[in-house]
Design goal:
By secondary structure, this protein is mainly α. The chain is built from 2 helices and no strands.
């Protein structure tokens, strides 16, 4: 994995295009929006797994 400080230094020397910056900001905004919706409304019951009763994973 690339060291984050090396990546930041690379971005300072070679800034990304405005389109790339918009894409990254849009992805971050979408993630924050989904997290806020889940925090406000909670996790849907339909997406919750039912307990198998034995305490082990079903393969």
């Amino acid at each position: 994995m690339v060291n984050p400080f090396l990546r930041m230094a690379h971005w300072v020397r070679h800034p990304p295009s405005p389109g790339r910056v918009k894409l990254v900001l849009a992805v971050v905004a979408l993630c924050l929006l989904l997290a806020a919706i889940e925090w406000i409304f909670g996790w849907p019951e339909a997406l919750t797994l039912e307990d198998g009763g034995r305490g082990r994973f079903v393969r």
